[in-house]
Task: inverse folding
């Protein structure tokens, strides 16, 4: 045994101080060779150092020439850029071990000698032992429940540890930096002499272990190491295994970022492996308890067994680090990946931490594949190791136990089993069925991300934190659960809740996840569990969007007596026997789908939780329904796209489409009538029910078959369009398809923009706004643009006309088609878009950003949902959109949306356009946000011409960031209204509008002819306000920004452009009202300054009775 | 002492904006001077250039200001910045009209120009009864004669002196005493009118369109004639260029050229690996491309690092992002 080729470090000063890297040395083979540390340290350390050389040089950039690195990068990694980012990440994540060693060496050595000098204790009864430690050292022995009492037969002894070693990530150097302190594990091997053969049953081992830990704690406490606080904590949240935790009080001596954990270990051979197999029952005295029903005590057994394998695994992982040079880096990647997904070593956090990851990879290097072939090869790169491990997790279902190096292992329950026969431990013993399901889902998603050739997805695999519950789960339920302080008990209750929820929700939920809260360290003089903090269980649900809203559940048929009985016993009085249309008589459940009722998921959960666990309504906190309610309250009561009101508009459109197919009296035949309105793609927040009209105006675009009879001139084309519109109107009115038709004018200041539209009040009372698309316009505009002789204002007008043409006639119909398809594919897309629009509207941004841009932002969350699945609730959709906005570095990155055809070449095209825009407009004056998709690779269709301006774009992202910081608070009961509440404080002035200006007008004397006019206007109260705001923008842009939204109808807020507030020399180009800066001394300077009072006065005069008051702020 | 209130050579005229129901009265400053355009015309001597007019300025306002309020010259007409005068916009319709029109206007007969200006005059019905000016906009006021322009400028200077020197003289109030019937109202009334005016009557629309199309056809006809005649005229050396049939429009040319290129491409397809040097070059190119891409990636990473600080930091930041449960 003494020839283990293992890295060994000793705690005692080493003999080779000349070594360039001073580090403490430690041994990993404490159980077998206590005295061997001194002899082989130097030789092996050298071996380790030489072993490290290639690993380091591969990962440090610049040591190799570019070609070698390039060859490496292009072959074994996803892409060279991925590899570069990964190297960078690894470098950043690798803790500086030399520094830590140097700093820790002294403390660790001191601790070691303290522990070694703790005097041995003769056998004591539990009572005596506890009493003595309490009275002399003020230490409460952290006995796990049930605590040993007076009747305990066995005695408690303390003897000097067999050895003391540093184990775990610090000595293996496979840890990562994090916000948590760096944990240094000091394993104290308890001598076998203090245990008896039968100690593996009935907590006897754990009681003795607790006593041992307490004595060690007492010894350290007595030695009073400077600046260290001593506490008890649980190892991996497991109440059977309390440990001593030492933290430095103040930075300096020990960095506050380091925590020393004293854990225990036993000799490998102390208890036979056969005693701790998963199927064994080692808690015999509790057979009367219900736990006996299952018999086996896998968690207890594994917990015990893992004490014996501390050294074994340390050694094992270390040997793999030596064998496989990228093992360490793969461990770092794995740890980072797990951490971003919220997995941790404690069973509450999923039971999969860095150690388990390393052990898993080690095992996979030896087997796990088909025919016991290894899954991993030691020649793999770190990326390949990482990916293959994930592939294994995603592909192999371990609830069907997998045993390595041994025959079949049977296991109770549905938890995953990966049994390591050599060391006798199921390394996944802390994983629960739900955390395992979640892990596999995550692994599956990540493998998909890594396989995607389009994107490197690096950010989503390693950087983005995916475990924020409100972004991850569609619904959250928080149940109060006072922790009993007993892991076995807690686990059992989790299992029961989980089982009930699974039965209750059935196919409504795709995944049900439970998370308990773990207990932190506690003071050594109190008993654990005395301060039972108000714990809770957080249940996260991933819903099935199609089934979640089903009103009636069908149970077993009445004839199936047994099933029916169990159905009845589960559901109680809620179960009803019903006859269905197909004649069958079945047990069934009927839930309420009234608007006033909470969502069906909530109804089911509150009913079953109350029935089975006596939770009352006030105990349970549901998170998720509020988002649906917010939308219902603010979106005309409509939540789903299948609402009859959306349907009505579609029907009207189809009927109109038929009417225009062949029109008498119109000289050209129709090619296509295309929808181009949010009302026709399920994304309008309001289905404005205006006066006499159901909703509208609904934009539609008509295209005729091409004809040579169109004039070849832009102005004449507009005139011809008007003639056509009049004709179409005449036809529709005479054929009875429309009740009224009138031609309206727009963009009258320009002769080459689209000048006219036709307002069609359809017979079904939907108001359509029809424009004619003539494809020749584009060619004419482009040709004139190429004409170099044209002067600048004209070129600008032409460019504007061209972009308007593309937007109105090409992109709007295309987007409508694409979004409509996506809405039917993802039922939650439509409500999410509408809620996000409401958010924008509440923050008065809707005048500044086109709603199409908003739709694209949300569409990406659904179309490219990685690292999650597409949202199945408004909550996740909404919050992920905000998160996307908060994380979007819009100045440097293009926003790409995939409508089904976004591949690498398209992305390349889009990126080229993006960088071209940034090059010609580096000040972001016309294009700030760049939002492209595979159906619109220009990317500026919806955002050009200051939609939004850079100030507003920045503000949008700031607001999203602020909202994201509030998200965790929502989970704890923050009112959702806070997210939708806009503060008026940041604006320079506020224009308050009269709520009912029209009433005022009716009293004015000029009403002679306005009676009928007003009638028409009552229809659109806020189009009037919108006209006013547009006027203001036209007069004062770009020097004043005006904010207004339907969500905040009574207010228009304004911001001065900060650049114009300083006095400047007067020029003709100043597009704002000025006053001389210095009236007293006017001839001295030509300085002028913006005349704010005069501008506000003008605004007030423009608005007349519409304006109630204007307040300047700050 | 006579104090001249001037800014960059412009006389400063303070105007009081009356108080409204929502804000206090404020002072607006208009800047005036004699009109000095780069290309003066016959109206220039009697024109005044006004900068920074209030947004609600109308011709009536300026007439009222120089007439009753300053009791100086009589205004003949006003050109606003936002309303395009025929002169400076002439280039637009020229270029926009028709496909193959030559830019050489010299040889055109006067009738074509006349027709074009006629075409220019045909506009759609107005949708606003009172257009607004952009903030800080300027206007050119043409007076009946030069003395009346000069007198007005003088009167404005005098009034400004009085007001600015604080001699307690009566302030000039913008639009005060202006007959309400002469300018359409602002505010609600204006928007109500607009909502009606944007739907002109069917007859009015059709009339405009018909007028336009008639003139448009005449213009096209005239142009065609002109082109035909031009083709007959001998050039400086006395030659007549003979062309076969009508000249193709630019667009047709473009289409043709594009087709030609396509054809050429198709021809060359499949011939890339004909010689060994071609495939060798290709391989080399691919390698270089990969290397270049690698360098680019490296640069991208450095850029990313610069922007985001460091990975670990962003990683930690995203960790801290939410409260640890």
Result:
């Amino acid at each position: 045994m003494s020839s283990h080729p293992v890295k060994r470090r000793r705690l005692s000063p080493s003999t080779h101080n000349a070594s360039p890297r001073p580090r403490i040395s430690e041994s990993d083979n404490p159980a077998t060779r206590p005295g061997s540390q001194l002899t082989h340290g130097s030789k092996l350390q050298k071996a380790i150092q030489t072993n490290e050389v290639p690993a380091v040089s591969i990962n440090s950039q610049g040591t190799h020439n570019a070609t070698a690195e390039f060859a490496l990068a292009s072959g074994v990694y996803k892409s060279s850029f991925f590899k570069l980012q990964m190297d960078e990440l690894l470098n950043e994540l690798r803790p500086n071990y030399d520094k830590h060693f140097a700093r820790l060496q002294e403390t660790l050595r001191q601790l070691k000698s303290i522990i070694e000098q703790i005097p041995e204790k003769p056998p004591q009864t539990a009572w005596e032992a506890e009493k003595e430690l309490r009275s002399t050292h003020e230490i409460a022995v952290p006995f796990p429940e049930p605590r040993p009492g007076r009747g305990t037969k066995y005695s408690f002894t303390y003897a000097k540890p067999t050895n003391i070693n540093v184990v775990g990530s610090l000595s293996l150097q496979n840890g990562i930096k994090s916000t948590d302190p760096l944990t240094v594990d000091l394993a104290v091997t308890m001598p076998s002499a203090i245990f008896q053969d039968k100690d593996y049953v009935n907590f006897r081992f754990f009681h003795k272990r607790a006593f041992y830990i307490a004595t060690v704690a007492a010894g350290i406490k007595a030695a009073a190491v400077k600046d260290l606080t001593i506490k008890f904590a649980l190892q991996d949240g497991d109440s059977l295994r309390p440990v001593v935790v030492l933290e430095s009080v103040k930075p300096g001596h020990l960095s506050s970022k380091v925590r020393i954990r004293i854990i225990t270990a036993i000799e490998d051979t102390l208890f036979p492996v056969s005693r701790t197999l998963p199927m064994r029952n080692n808690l015999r005295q509790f057979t009367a308890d219900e736990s006996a029903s299952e018999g086996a005590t896998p968690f207890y057994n594994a917990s015990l067994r893992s004490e014996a394998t501390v050294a074994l695994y340390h050694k094992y992982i270390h040997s793999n680090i030596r064998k496989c040079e990228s093992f360490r880096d793969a461990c770092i990647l794995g740890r980072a990946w797990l951490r971003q997904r919220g997995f941790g070593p404690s069973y509450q956090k999923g039971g999969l931490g860095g150690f388990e990851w390393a052990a898993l990879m080690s095992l996979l290097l030896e087997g796990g594949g088909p025919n016991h072939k290894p899954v991993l090869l030691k020649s793999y790169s770190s990326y390949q190791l990482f990916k293959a491990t994930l592939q294994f997790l995603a592909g192999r279902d371990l609830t069907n136990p997998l045993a390595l190096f041994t025959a079949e292992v049977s296991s109770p329950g549905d938890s995953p089993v990966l049994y390591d026969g050599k060391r006798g431990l199921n390394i996944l013993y802390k994983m629960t069925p739900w955390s395992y399901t979640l892990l596999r889902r995550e692994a599956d998603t990540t493998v998909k991300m890594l396989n995607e050739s389009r994107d490197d997805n690096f950010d989503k695999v390693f950087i983005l934190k995916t475990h924020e519950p409100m972004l991850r789960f569609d619904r959250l339920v928080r149940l109060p659960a006072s922790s009993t302080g007993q892991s076995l008990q807690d686990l059992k209750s989790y299992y029961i809740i989980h089982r009930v929820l699974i039965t209750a929700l059935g196919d409504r939920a795709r995944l049900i996840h439970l998370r308990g809260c773990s207990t932190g360290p506690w003071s050594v003089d109190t008993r654990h569990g005395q301060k039972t903090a108000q714990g809770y269980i957080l249940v996260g649900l991933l819903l099935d969007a199609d089934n979640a809203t089903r009103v009636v559940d069908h149970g077993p048929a009445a004839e199936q007596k047994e099933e029916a009985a169990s159905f009845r016993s589960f559901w109680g009085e809620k179960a009803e026997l019903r006859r269905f249309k197909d004649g069958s008589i079945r047990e069934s459940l009927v839930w309420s789908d009234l608007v006033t009722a909470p969502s069906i998921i909530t109804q089911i959960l509150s009913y079953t939780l109350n029935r089975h666990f006596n939770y009352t309504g006030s105990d349970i906190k549901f998170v998720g329904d509020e988002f649906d309610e917010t939308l219902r309250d603010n979106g005309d009561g409509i939540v789903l796209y299948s609402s009859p009101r959306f349907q009505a508009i579609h029907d009207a459109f189809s009927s109109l489409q038929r009417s225009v197919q062949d029109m008498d009296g119109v000289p050209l035949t129709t090619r296509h009538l295309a929808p181009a309105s949010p009302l026709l793609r399920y994304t309008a927040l309001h289905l404005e029910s205006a006066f006499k009209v159901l909703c509208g105006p609904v934009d539609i675009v008509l295209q005729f078959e091409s004809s040579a009879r169109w004039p070849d001139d832009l102005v004449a084309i507009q005139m011809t369009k008007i003639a056509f519109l009049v004709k179409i109107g005449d036809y529709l009115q005479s054929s009875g398809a429309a009740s009224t038709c009138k031609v309206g004018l727009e963009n009258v200041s320009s002769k080459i923009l689209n000048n006219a539209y036709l307002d069609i009040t359809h017979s079904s009372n939907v108001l359509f706004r029809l424009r004619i698309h003539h494809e020749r316009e584009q060619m004419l505009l482009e040709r004139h643009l190429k004409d170099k002789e044209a002067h600048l204002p004209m070129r600008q007008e032409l460019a504007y006309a061209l972009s308007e043409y593309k937007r109105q006639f090409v992109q709007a119909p295309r987007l409508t088609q694409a979004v409509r398809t996506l809405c039917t594919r993802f039922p939650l897309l439509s409500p999410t878009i509408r809620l996000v629009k409401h958010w924008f509207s509440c923050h008065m941004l809707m005048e500044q950003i086109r709603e199409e841009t908003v739709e694209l932002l949300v569409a990406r969350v659904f179309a490219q949902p990685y690292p999650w699945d597409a949202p199945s609730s408004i909550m996740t959709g909404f919050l992920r959109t905000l998160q996307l906005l908060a994380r979007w570095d819009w100045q440097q990155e293009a926003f790409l949306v995939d409508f089904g055809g976004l591949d690498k070449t398209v992305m390349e095209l889009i990126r080229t356009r993006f960088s071209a825009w940034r090059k010609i407009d580096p000040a972001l004056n016309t294009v700030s946000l760049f939002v492209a998709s595979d159906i619109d690779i220009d990317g500026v269709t919806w955002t050009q011409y200051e939609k939004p301006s850079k100030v507003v774009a920045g503000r949008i992202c700031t607001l999203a960031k602020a909202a994201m910081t509030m998200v965790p608070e929502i989970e704890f009961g923050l009112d959702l209204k806070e997210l939708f509440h806009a503060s008026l404080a940041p604006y320079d002035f506020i224009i308050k509008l009269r709520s009912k200006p029209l009433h005022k007008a009716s009293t004015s004397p000029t009403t002679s002819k306005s009676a009928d006019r007003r009638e028409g206007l009552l229809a659109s109260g806020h189009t009037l306000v919108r006209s006013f705001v547009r006027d203001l923008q036209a007069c004062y842009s770009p020097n004043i920004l005006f904010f207004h939204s339907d969500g905040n109808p009574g207010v228009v807020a304004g911001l001065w452009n900060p650049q114009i507030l300083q006095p400047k020399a007067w020029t003709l180009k100043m597009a704002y009202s000025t006053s001389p800066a210095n009236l007293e001394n006017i001839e001295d300077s030509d300085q002028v300054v913006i005349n704010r009072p005069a501008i506000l006065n003008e605004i007030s005069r423009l608005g007349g009775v519409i304006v109630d008051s204007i307040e300047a702020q700050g | 002492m006579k104090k001249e209130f001037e800014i960059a050579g412009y006389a400063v005229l303070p105007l009081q904006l009356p108080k409204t129901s929502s804000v206090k009265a404020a002072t607006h400053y208009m800047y005036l001077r004699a009109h000095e355009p780069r290309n003066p015309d016959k109206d220039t001597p009697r024109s005044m250039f006004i900068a920074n007019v209030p947004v609600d300025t109308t011709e009536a306002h300026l007439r009222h200001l120089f007439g009753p309020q300053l009791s100086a010259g009589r205004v003949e007409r006003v050109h606003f910045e936002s309303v395009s005068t025929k002169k400076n916009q002439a280039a637009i319709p020229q270029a926009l009209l028709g496909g193959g029109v030559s830019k050489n206007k010299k040889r055109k007969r006067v009738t074509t120009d006349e027709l074009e200006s006629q075409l220019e005059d045909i506009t759609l019905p107005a949708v606003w009864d009172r257009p607004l000016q952009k903030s800080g906009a300027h206007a050119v006021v043409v007076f009946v004669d030069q003395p009346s322009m000069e007198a007005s400028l003088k009167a404005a200077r005098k009034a400004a002196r009085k007001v600015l020197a604080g001699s307690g003289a009566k302030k000039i109030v913008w639009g005060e005493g202006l007959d309400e019937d002469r300018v359409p109202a602002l505010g609600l009334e204006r928007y109500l009118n607009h909502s009606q005016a944007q739907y002109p009557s069917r007859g009015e629309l059709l009339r405009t369109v018909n007028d336009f199309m008639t003139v448009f056809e005449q213009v096209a006809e005239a142009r065609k004639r002109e082109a035909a005649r031009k083709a007959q005229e001998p050039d400086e050396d006395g030659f007549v260029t003979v062309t076969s049939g009508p000249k193709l429009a630019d667009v047709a040319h473009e289409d043709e050229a594009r087709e030609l290129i396509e054809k050429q491409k198709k021809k060359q397809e499949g011939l890339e690996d004909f010689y060994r040097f071609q495939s060798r070059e290709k391989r080399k190119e691919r390698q270089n491309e990969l290397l270049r891409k690698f360098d680019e990636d490296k640069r991208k990473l450095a850029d990313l690092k610069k922007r985001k600080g460091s990975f670990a930091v962003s990683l930690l930041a995203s960790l801290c992002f939410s409260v640890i449960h």
